[in-house]
Design brief:
Number of strands: 26
Shape: elongated
Number of helices: 32
Strand content: 15-25%
Distance between the termini: 73 Å
Largest sheet: 11 strands, mixed
Helix content: 40-55%
Oligomer: single chain
Radius of gyration: 35 Å
Amino acid sequence: MENEHSRQTVGAESVEAVFDRFAVQLQQGLTATHVERRLKKYGNNQLRQKARRSSWQILIAQFKSPIIALLAVAAVLSFIFQEWIEGIAVLIAILLNTLIGFFTEIKAVRSMEALQQLSKTVAKVRRDGQVQEISAERLVPGDVVLLESGDLVAADLRLIEVSKLQADESALTGESVPVSKTTDAIAQEVPLAEQKNVVYKGTAITRGSGAGIVYATGMETELGRISSLTDEATDEMTPLEKRLDQLGKRLIWVTLAIAVVVAIAGILSGKDLVLMVETAIALSVAAVPEGLPIVATIALARGMWRMAKRNALINRLSAVETLGATSIICTDKTGTLTENQMTVTQLVLTSGSVDVTGEGLSQTGDFQRAGETLSPDQETLLATALKIGVLCNNAALPQSQAENPDKIIGDPMEAALLIAGTKANLRREDLIQQQPEVREVAFDAETKMMATVHKAEAGQYFFAVKGAPESVLPACTQQLISDGSQPLQDADRQDWEQQFQQLAERGLRILALAMKTAESETAKPYENLTFVGVVGLEDPPRQAAKAAIQACYDAGIRVIMVTGDQAVTARQIGQAVGLVDGSAQASPGQELQQLDTLSDSDQQRLQQVPIFARVSPEQKLNLIALHQKQGAIVAMTGDGVNDAPALKKADIGVAMGQRGTQVAREAADMVLQDDAFSSIIAAVEQGRAIFGNIRKFTLYLLSGNVGEILAVAIASLFNAPLPLLPLQILFLNAVNDVFPALALGVGEGDPSLMKHPPRDSQEAILTPAHWRAIAVYGAFIAAPVLAIFALSLTVLGIEPSQAVTISFLSLAFGRLWHVFNMRDDDSGLLRNEVTQNPYIWGALVICTGLLLSAVYMPGLSTALQTTHPGLQGWGLVLLTSLVPVILGQVWKTLRSR
């Protein structure tokens, strides 16, 4: 359906005409009835989504495996040589391998899709006269959308209000410089890049604030019309999965060579041609750990769900493995190390200091000076300061404390100012009725100030200004006193600077307030101001932050605080959370210059600094480069639109889910849904656990497969009977090995994971030490099987079919118990991450049942050529199968010592 509200049409109309076109008012917005009606007409605000992989596609993909091809060759050869039972058995093995792969992969794929649904874009709209946050999918033409710096535009909007508004439209136009926006009507026939009164879905607000009316949603937006942008999404394969895939392909060629040698040796020694060909194919299947890609996907999906449950949402799969190698975390202070529950606790005015009671979002409290309660109605300076904080504000409080009292919209600092005003019965909606807002000068990272302009009496305009004290004070020429104002002298400035310092040393965030009255609303907002006072806001450290930072130190991870706040405030919080001791100093961000301008000694000194204060986004980039140059894997937190470059440059970009802008969340590899530093540590721990799990099941599968190959190859080379038959090998690899490997892949990891330094990010999944372990474990598995097979045939006089069954069961159970060799070297013998993994015990129960079925189930036992081993045989199986785990534990103990 073509949208009748085109860009050219709405762009050429005046603001008033746009309101009439969509039958909407700025302060009222759409009603719920209008919204539902328009949703039915225009549908959800969604682009054409990438088709999800269907169950049939996942099933068919299982047949594209080289393992299936090898099994198919074995089945064809069996039928050619009229080995009907073996041929059917191989087909059953193909079916089982396919079904196991299908059910495990579809669960992982659906888990990944469900995770993606957790991250949804929101939009701030005005509906039924109230500001609401809604899912961007629910936007409809006519919605009044409020925009701030850092927002991602959720639909195509005709702008109706702007304040220094700029948008990054490079995704649509290729223009790298942000575009300044206006509300003025323009000519109809202008190019997309010159449409100054429109912002487009998918672009980012980089500066200022504003409001717009939705005129196009979903596929009718400019982004929707560019089909190439909707088709770019492809399945992501992480470097870890690529390495596993390459490992599997290399093993195919190696094992094919081994299989050919074994087959030729057997044929030359007089063994049956069909038997040796089938044995060679079975060995080829045995040597290739076909479960690797499947189990890796399951391990990644399971780990990502664990991270999501601990409030860390992964945007990019590749971040999972990088997390485990993180060596430096550069973290913000506000909301990450602190609670981000701002509370105004003090106001400093020319008349003295005023304490404010009440904590958090509680709108009850009072104002005290020297223990006596003050009434803002009688304290003019206090009332003026509170009024400025309420007017110069973009946050919104809940309509009532009884209905969702914790839900605030906007910046926590601005919400704290609204709450402080509420304690004095100064509510923004009431003040706006008395002094309507006519202009907003949005907060700017360069000026570090914000202003709103309001109609006052006698044709005058009232300017309410708030911002960083070091920015506001120089813009002031007067200061407010009880009976008016007076010139701001140098001595007064020094007194105020001392007040700033004292508040900051107490760990408070500080905000300066100023005002002026002018005859024109267009007067320069930051000139000739009257200084009113300073607000001290308390943001207590998170209780879990200190333990989390200590956990970082135990794990060999450095933590660096990077904040835009003052140095003394940052140092106080740093001491409170255990980041630094009392002697440490915070360095100013201006020391973080481009690397090529810093001497080697300066670089070395800056690498040791634990706190940087008053840091700009550009300086964050320099800090990342400084540590990456030394080979560190750097995680960087960020929340603002200007943090996006640093989030992209860092090895792990971490955005704040609660206070972070949508631009920052899109640029990040990981989003913290609770903004807590402890969630980063939980994600790092899971990253380490996932990598360790993948290493363990790879080691487990390969070492077990090497044991099979050695047992059959040695018997063939010495012209001895085969201890395993081809179908028995296929049964072990297609059915029995998968469950323990899956159990290892979804384990929670060793509790001591965070007691070790991070691994090298370039470290292979299997190091030379692991390859040696594979060979040793393979020998431990093969040797007792060959020994019991030879003993059964020669000394004990057991018939060949029974002897083969004993060696088959010995190998099978030996590989099951071998899973306990996968514990970490420094873990306990009986109490470790493997024995405490409930999935391991479940896998052992399932596999034991399958092995009993292989011996006693009619039909299956016939196909596998197994017989009842007898009481003596079961005793031999038990003893022999325990040898690999006993030798493995002894070797592991000796190696760790």
